[in-house]
Amino acid sequence: MKKQAKFGIGIGIILVSMASLAWLGYGESKTYYHTIAELETLQGTAAAHRMRVGGTVQPGSIHHASGRTDFVLLGEGKSLLVSYTGKDPLPDSFIDNSQALIEGRMGSDGHFDAEHVQAKCASKYEAAPGEVPRPSGSTGRS
Amino acid sequence: MDVFGSFALLLAFVCALYALAGGIAAILTRHPLLIKSARQAGMAACALIFLATFSVVYLFVTDNFSMAYVASHSNRDLATFFKVVALWSGQEGSLLFWCFLMSIYIFSVLIAYRNKHGELMPYVGTILAGVQLFFLTISNFVASPFKALAIANASGGLEYYMRGDGSGLNPVLQYPEMIIHPPNLYSGYTGFTIPFAFALAALLGRYPGEKWIHLTRKWTMIAWCFQTVGILLGAHWAYAVLGWGGYWGWDPVENASFLPWLTGTAFLHSVMMQEKRGMMKIWNVWLVFITFMLCILGTLLTRSGVVSSVHAFAQSNIGNWFVGFLAVVLAICLFAFFKNRDYLESENQLDSMISRESSFLFNNLVLLVACVAILSGTLFPVFSEWFTGSRISVGAPFFNKVNIPLGLLLLFLTGVGPLLAWRKTSAESLKRNLLWPALVGLAGGVIVVLLGAASFDKVNIRIGLLLFLLSGVCRLLALRKSSFENLNRILLLLTVVGLLGGLIVILLGSREMFALVCFILSAFVAATIAVEYYRGARVIRARSGLSWLSSAMELTLRNTRRYGGYIVHFGMVMIFVGLAGQAFNKEVQKEIGVGGTVKIGPYELLLQAIDQKQEKNYVAERMIVEVMKDHKPVMILFPERRNFPTNQESGTMVAIYSTLREDLYVVYAGINQGSDVPTIHVFLNPLVKWVWYGGIVVVMGTIVALVAPRHAVLVLSGSKVPEAVAGFATAVPNSVATSVTLREGHD
What we know:
Chain A is of the alpha+beta class. Chain A is 25% helix and 32% strand. The interface between A and B is large, with 53 and 74 residues. β1 (31-34) of chain A pairs antiparallel with β3 of chain B, so a sheet runs across the interface.
């Protein structure tokens, strides 16, 4: 066999096996991103997918029970009830008003079953030049 | 000091602009004074960046809360050490820090080669100035660390404002590992600018290929080493601080740092093909270009928030600037390539499927396929949104499925590659003698898989058998075409070592198949390296009468590139062994009161007490946990939660009892709000220490490879050479090598 063909076959085997593994891995882990507003409009198979939703944690809504944590996620004026049932401890940055990204599936009764929760620090507000600072924060703090 | 700093930065911008424009003029006119002044402008830009960076640090240390950056990343109670390193804790400061590290490289290059390589350096200096100019533009005009706080005053205008105290440093950053992770990683990222500049310069200036590769080799190895350390430190920080029990989550930012490492590794190997055989010139040049572009992409992904990640900085439109820069870089590379393509013609062709060249080719293929897979997976949300309108992300299962087999294949190549000869060797017909070791290997693999079939995923078994088949076939072909007389004996030894290793692993109770294959291959590669050292040291020992250890050291010092490379390979083997341990991780999460116990593996943990302690800027709440093994106390661990009152955040301090065999990893997960009982989360992670120790070995190997080799002394008679002469490092012209390993014609 010509050596080009031999190389081609060797490379081809590797690429084909990788492509099939990639396809399998993709199927296992693909996760759609939706906003809270979009969740209401999802129907059929789209509603049963694994998905990620981002939003802000409503202050005072975090309740810890044994084996799960419930909270309310706010985004674009809508709210979503979330139950986190994963094993990992919630991140330290998961507090009132933090930005959270939840991953899981929609439950049957309109609440969301989250398997993963990521949270980022509450965004620090700084007055831009020319703007009046928000009344909630005095000028002494950010 | 803030005015001084920001002015220094602005002046650096002007100098870089002159270095670029003057550099272009210098290339076109070849006027020696222009060349010199462009270079000196480049050096001045670097010095000014140093000054600007020091002034930001000064602002932090003196608690200057009139500066926005200082106010949002520091506070009075912060330990001084952390005030210094807060420089790179946010967007603007870390960009300036990037400029700082890049300037160290650029300054070194400009000074070291100021009187050499006159044909090449003007191009190099100009390209480096161009890159520097981009980052200075961002640092001066887009994300400046010298922004001052201002507030609207009574008459509606703006006036300067100084805050009483800052917001404090993110608690998650207040750890030693986090301090050294960005400097190392950035030193890696910025370091790849140097080989990129040399490659592009050589292409534009049609400079002889072997020379620029020889020049950049050391810089590439340094950048690669920093990148490796940076990635491992990031992993170690995630492990020790974030408290989820793992060290790699295929997070977009983690992947972003891994991509240039993959192409950088591919480049370090394929460049040998160009050195020895004048092949793969086009491939190498584009590999360096892509490595540099991936570095820019890496920082783009981290800073722009285009894909969501735990690491991301605040979202901003800074991403657009980086995309623009990437487009410009790509355009210039394409232009240079099409203009001077003929200069990159290969001198030789690939002769045989099984040869050193082909093993490098497969090495590159595996690394690049991994790179493409990780890049696609990381950017999948962006692409899927373009094409289908919805953002779809892929997670760890995708990355693991693709990268584990690729990693195993790479491990296999690491063992086989060094045994193969350059070019094609005369075809041996030792098929019958060499067939049965390969068959034994295949049979052993099948037995191993069948033994563990009950606990394996069906797909894994299929792929595993496929891999074994492939490796067996490769081994068969290798044994047919390669010409070492002793090769069949060596490969038999290696097969037996590998199988023995696998059997031991089965007997110890492990079941996961990929881990098993990994252990078998690791034993295979380690044996390969040991055999190489043995063969070389044996010759030196015979000629010089030194002990085995001294012979091995002498061997290494005579051929630092090759044997340093073997040490690096051994370090990588240790890392792979550590990674394979993940297949056997265990974890337990439980609420326990004081006096309660939790069991995991052979350990029993008893919660003795919970106490509180006030530190400078946080309150530490910690568990005192006694660890017992077989009812004998082993040690006491103190997992902690830290509460930072200033920014109302909390951090976790994981307690780890780490041995070579396994890590006992204990997290104080918090107090259950409902029942007021503390929750403890315990992991038993085998072999994790191998990853960190492997990293240290990789660094040591790189340092060895960077050292200039000794030249051997010609021995005229067969008598023993006195110790003093044997150890003497003489650079004798036309010195003759006494080691048989040098006969093969490389290194």
